[in-house]
Amino acid sequence: GADWYRGTADAIYQNLNFIDLADPEYVLILSGDHIYTMDYSWMLDAHKANKAEATIGVIEVPWEEAPRFGIMNTDKTGRIEAFEEKPAKPKSNLASMGIYIFNKDFLKKYLEEDAKDETSSHDFGKNIIPKMLADKARLYSYAFDGYWKDVGTIESLWQANMDLLQDQPPFELNGDWKIYSSNPSMPPHYVGPDATVRNSMISEGSMVLGDVENSVIFPGVRIGKGAKVRNSVIMPSTVVRENAVVDYAIVAQNCEISEGAKVAGEKGAITVIADGETVVAAAAGSKQAG
């Protein structure tokens, strides 16, 4: 009979019992679809120094992208004076990173009040943060200047993968701070004698018999003879058959791009093939996937 999470704030509210078990002084809340490296202890130090009740991680984004984000307007000390959720005409380009530090009792009070409000969307950006500001609470920003990518859109997910292919990638996968994930324990990848690979990342267990350029190939992928994969992300165990073409695409796992089939998008409009889908070659006069 429990309700599914109705919003970001409700997700935390429904887990207050877990927080109460630990009984911390501070609560750190993170977003799950961002790529970045941050030492949260520095942000906590700033939170304490400012005697803040809430601290929100922010980063400068290009002005043209600012309407995608929650935007913070701050004074010269970093104290947040106003918050705009995805404004059409933003007054600032300081975007919320979806990283919050709250004093626990302060957070709990607002979550419990919000849970009783039937008109609320139960969202931090739409409800909780504006209510705290309206109450003149001590909300401060914490500026971050490293690599950060919100991969909540197809284009940003594609771009984050392409960033790995730069001569000097803006973030390091094999640095001092490890990224923990599953290891498929597959044999080394194989690139055939007639295949070509240019500016690409080929993962273990993959077999490349065609041409791959400016692409990220996940483990267990098969690319047949004469196939061309460009500007794309091919996820695990997908098969690209002979003479197929994939360009500006994200192909999910366990897909099959049939012999002679074409999957084509363009920069800024990436084509996506869903998990387990099969793309067949178009018959004469018909339209192929794109």
Question: What tags apply to this protein structure?
Answer:
single chain; 290 residues; alpha/beta; five-stranded parallel beta sheet; 6 helices; 24 strands; 19% helix; 28% strand; elongated
What do these coordinates show?
- With 290 residues, the chain is an alpha/beta fold.
- The protein is 19% helix and 28% strand.
- It has helices at 8-13, 16-22, 40-49, 104-115, 124-134, 154-163, and strands spanning 26-29, 34-36, 54-60, 70-74, 80-85, 94-103, 139-143, 148-150, 190-191, 196-198, 201-202, 207-208, 211-213, 216-217, 222-223, 228-230, 233-234, 239-240, 245-247, 249-251, 256-257, 262-264, 271-273, 278-279.
- The strands form six sheets. A six-stranded parallel sheet has the order 9-12-15-18-21-24, with no helix packed on it. Strands 10-13-16-19-22 form a five-stranded parallel sheet, with no helix packed on it.
- It starts with 7 loop residues before the first helix and ends in an 11-residue tail after the last strand.
- Can you list the strand order of the major beta sheet? 9-12-15-18-21-24
Task: Give the DSSP E fraction (strand runs of 2 or more residues).
Answer: 25-35%
Radius of gyration from CA coordinates? 23 Å
The shape, in one word, is elongated
- Strand pairing plus helix content: what structural class? alpha/beta
Biggest sheet details: 6 strands, parallel
Helix residue percentage: 10-25%
Total number of helical segments? 6
Order of helices and strands: HHEEHEEEEHHEEHEEEEEEEEEEEEEEEE
Distance between the termini: 43 Å
Provide mean pLDDT, rounded.
92
Tally of strands: 24
Sequence stretches where pLDDT stays below 50 over 5 or more residues: none
